[in-house]
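Notes, p. 3: input format for complexes.
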Amino acid sequence: MKDFIIPGLDGAPAFSDRDFGTPERHSHRTVTLTIDGFEVSVPEGTSIMRASNTLGIAIPKLCATDNMEAWGSCRLCAVEVEGRRGTPASCTTPVTPGMVVHTQTAKLEKLRRGVMELYISDHPLDCLTCAANGDCELQDMAGAVGLRDVRYEAPVGGGMENHFLRRDATGAPNPEWLPKDDSNPYFTYDPAKCIVCSRCVRACEEVQGTFALTIEGRGFDSRVSAGMSGDTFLSSDCVSCGACVQACPTATLQEKSVIAIGTPDRKVITTCAYCGVGCSFEAEMRGDTVVRMTPWKHGKANRGHSCVKGRFAWGYATHKDRILEPMIRESITDPWEVVSWDEAITFAATRMRDIQARHGVKAIGGITSSRCTNEETYLVQKMIRAVFGNNNTDTCARVCHSPTGYGLGRAFGTSAGTQDFDSVEHTDVVIVIGANPTDGHPVFASRLKKRLREGAKLIVIDPRRTDLVRSPHVEAAHHLPLRPGTNVAVVTALAHVIVTQGLYDEAFIRERCDWDEFQHYAEFVAQDRHSPEAIAMLTGVDPNELRAAARLFARGGNGAIYYGLGVTEHSQGSTTVMGIANLAMLTGNLGRPGVGVNPLRGQNNVQGACDMGSFPHELPGYRHVSQDSTREVFEKLWGAVLDREPGLRIPNMLDAAVEGTFKGLYVQGEDILQSDPDTKHVSAGLAAMECVIVQDLFLNETANYAHVFLPGSTFLEKDGTFTNAERRINRVRRVMMPKNGYADWEVTQLLANAMGAGWTYTHPSQVMDEIAATTPTFAGVSYEFLEERGSVQWPCNELHPEGTPIMHVDGFMRGRGRFIVTEYVATDERTGPRFPLLLTTGRILSQYNVGAQTRRTDNVVWHDQDVLEIHPHDAEVRGVKEGDWVRLASRAGETSLRALITDRVSPGVVYTTFHHPDTQANVITTDFSDWATNCPEYKVTAVQVALTNGPSEWQVDYAGQAEQSRRILPAAE
Amino acid sequence: MSADVQKLVRMANQIATFFATQPGDTQAAEVAGHLKAFWEPRMLTALYGHVEAGGEGLSPLVLRAVERLRQPAA
Ligand code: SF4
Ligand code: SF4
Ligand code: SF4
Ligand code: FES
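Output follows (1047 residues plus iron/sulfur cluster):
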């Protein structure tokens, strides 16, 4: 894209696409120089190329781009500097004071043409039919340097020196020619077009941190190669993040979607709908067709990077399985009947009201979605509280991060992560506990790995040897492979070492925390029974490693803790969160860049769903329903009386359903049957209800028990906002009309109005205005504000008009930070003779949660089934070999899947994912839960593993039942 | 004891187990506060019913908390 810029007068606009050629430098010293007669001042260390670009003067370039360090190989960017001989490369030459640079002289013109001529002589001239036509830097540069003819030609009859012709004039094959690599489902590698600029290799190293690519050979023979020789992109270590494709200046690495459709003609900035990193993307469109999604360089969460899910796995939006018309049925044994929106909504509203008439106001409820927007979530809880007239609202965030809310709320006074993602750039020691960011939060993992390669130290606390423990150029200083369920013991032992060795930050604690509470806490953790040695038997963690880790964290500089579901999904989830808060306060690691307590949220809008009042006891902004003043604010605006007692949480709703006092449920964008623990209990609860309304893209597993199906819309089809794990509110923008006819918020409004609400929203911005008007932490947020800033981190209000990248800077939200005693309590879920192994669960990179979306994309090439990881020792005593079908049984149920033998897991521990419905790992998980929040204990289940022949009886039955309940009547004529 | 009640007993005891480890003499009040803040009324009613039926399996701290909760609000 060519900006219209007057050099020296006008900088690049705030969100310009301009490629500055080399990365930004930070320095408090500035250097002033002259380029083509214009004076410019830039931070010390800046390259001439970047300085020139800040003036709006672009210097021709091929091998440089501004998200990686310069390489200096193409020589196209040569400039002349007065008083210096030669023509230095502007990308690798830093500015010096008083320098006088010329970017365009007769000498440079000639030189650049010569360089381009050489490149083009070894490049096919099929621009007109090339997929990158119009979007190719080689083409642009040929234009920019005024290349008019190419004097070199392949010699006739053999001995030819090029890489792109398949055969020479005599028909003999060209040994230098290599075929296209089509193995990756989303992009191709065509070696014939490669100019060996090495941008892809550097992107894979510097941006993604995977080191899958290398340049093999030297000089004319050099080639980009994925993995070892003989590997393809698919068989290599490549994780398909797309960074190399983004970096490639030619069509060598090219999205298959662009090859299929053509180049896009417009871009819309939006936010990924997969994980809690919340990457900003440009949806590149042609008409209403998405051509590709590319990470947006100004996105503050991702800084121009992406992972395979957001970058490539959006095809589910147009998948044939999507249900686009509403359906109803009398009973769940009937087939579905396609009906009009009117009929479906009336049917649903009538049934819900009828249930309330017969069983009371509190007999129905709803579940908000962490996949939907803030505005949609807000409306669902509003409908439940104001229209249903009760507080029976919950969200699937219950099953992942509710302990974060409770634990951090008690310790600091606010239930959110304390930092922004940029903070990791200032970290010296990182603890990653119960999280597997390279799979779960890939873009954050890339940013973390970058910092680790710069020298920061890493401590991993996880039962499994996750990829972070050892990967190319990253190695954890300490890995504490604890037994599942012993987080509290380990965290308390870390505190024991810090306290008994006097490594705590007394000044910080005296200034910021409650000193009496600290003293009590210190006394508690100092007891011998919390020493690393005392807990070693219980946790399986080497006491010396634990001691060393504690010392490193306390004394290693800025210390940051990142944690995930491996912390929260335990019967002591909330206690561990408080233990983590204690560690941060003990070591003074709060309130500045590089430190803090950082929950890595699972789904894209878990943070937002919690903020928006999805929980049965809390109105938006984490205010308890019993607070009269808060209720009044909403009662006045909503014109309804609100219940002052907390409502039912998801597991309680299901219990009440089985018991017979809960009969109707509206579920927006969640699949509780697959995602919630103890599947049999969930299905019993759902089956006992009289009206289950499922609003989703697909007939999900929960829909097998539904009476009304309302088609949902994808993030590409609606406006709204998502709030990511760093509290950043990002815009979601509609790029195409909803294929089902309505955005999800409109569907909720239809249902609410059919039940008498009388709402008149015409755009989600009005909902955001209502949120801002009622919720102090959002007071300054509006769509205009977001348009201007791109994004903002709450709290955003009068006190923090620019938002809050880092929390608790001058003091905790609640005043003084609280040290809370964290006694280890063993879970009731124990191994014994019948169930001697501990099962823990997780996720993998290419699939997302229950997989409803990713399973409907080509991501299945990386993960077509769930497998059970088992240690060689445990496998051997059971006679299990790699790839065998095994039966996995717990006291809750059993399922079958294939075994993967690996020492990533310790003896006594097995591990699986839950992405595929036919595996149904949650048939195995029990109904034990966190003591404070009922967040289910996914991460610990006592199990037995034995050889078997194939799927279990239950799986076969289930598949049959599912098929039965998905029948749709052919449309009536 | 029915499965539902058993579950409530376990949940209540879990809460009590945490607060029992906390310093000071407010444990019963904390447990009561937690129950009030997070439990839906029909769950509380069921818990009270179980207490009346003898409170089998409930920890003493839960019993004390329930006693506080059932005192008519001052
Ligand atoms: S897609 Fe990502 S991981 Fe794969 S080679 Fe390219 S940069 Fe490396
Ligand atoms: S594949 Fe693209 S980025 Fe990589 S060296 Fe070749 S031209 Fe450069
Ligand atoms: S899934 Fe997460 S890391 Fe990947 S692109 Fe989306 S938001 Fe970013
Ligand atoms: S852009 Fe500077 S050497 Fe290639």
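The longest strand of chain A covers residues 894-901.
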